[in-house]
Amino acid sequence: MGPDWRSIHDELARRDLSSLSATELDRLGESLFWLDRPDESIAVLGRAYRAHAAEGDHGGAAMAAWQLFYDHALVGETALANGWLERARRHAGHVEGSAAAGFLAVAECDHAAGAGALDDALSHAERAVAIGDATGDVDLVAMALQAKGRALVACGRLDEGVRALDEAMVAVVNGELAPLFTGWVYCNALSTCHDLADLSRAVQWSQAATRWCDEFRHGQLYPGICRLHVVELASLRGTWELAATQ
Asked: Is the model's pTM score more than 0.85?
């Protein structure tokens, strides 16, 4: 069972925002994300960034900026996303070799891939994997592996790419990751299977994804995306009853 985001939100939201620590603001922003309140989540994460930066916590500031890069990119706000990526780069430069630097490398991979610079994307992903291995951060390792897998697939190295995605998914199914990264890896692995028409692999991961979705107390973002993939897969296989009930 995942965290009770409603209780976490209610406990933190009843307090004055100015009294919350940077870490508490991170947590409040995350709870709002899972409660499907993205605009409020972005606003709180902006406060969290300022709090981390004011404390001289470059790692925390880099991670807040990293999250805001993806939040704005997700809704097509490219200019804002790029601005937050620049801030993440600036802060991560102060903590080379840290988990924050590794997560930045994941973002750099996605940014390069979006620009069609596939060799650069793969290089960033491999750096993220190396930092993840060095730091022992399981969330980073899984995120780096899924980024590497997708970059390899985009480069036409399908077998290597799928192997990297499979390894990342083992961490997900084994319950090793935080909720944010659980959903992230699921979504990208299922999307890649769909793009490759690898129905056998997609079936295995979609079954695991459905079990994970069923554990959610609140929130629909990742469960909604995962269930969409499950519906698509069920439709392709002609299992209409399953598709209709998702």
From this structure: yes
CA 115 – CA 211 distance, rounded (Å): 35
Whether residue 147 contacts residue 110, with contact meaning beta carbons closer than 8 Å, is answered with yes
User: How many CB atoms are located within 10 Å of the residue 174 CB?
Assistant: 9
Nearest to 169 by CA among 193, 136, 194: 193
Q: CA-to-CA distance for 226 and 139, rounded, in angstroms?
A: 19
Nearest to 196 by CA among 154, 144, 139: 154
Query: Considering the chain, what is the average pLDDT of its residues?
Result: 88
Q: Is the pLDDT of residue 217 over 70?
A: no
Q: How far apart are CA 128 and CA 158, in angstroms?
A: 20
- The confidence score (pLDDT) of residue 194 equals 78
Helix (H) or strand (E) holding 207: helix 199-214
Question: Cβ of 238: how many Cβ atoms within 10 Å?
Answer: 8
The set of residues, in sequence order, having a beta carbon less than 8 Å from that of 201 and lying 6+ positions away, is 162, 166, 193
Phi, psi (5° rounding) for residue 191? Answer: -60, -40
Measured at the CA of 118, the angle between CA 146 and CA 112, to 5 degrees, comes to: 80
Which stretches of 57-198 are DSSP H helices? Answer: 58-74, 78-92, 99-114, 118-135, 138-154, 158-173, 179-196
- Cα distance between residue 83 and residue 87, in whole Å: 7
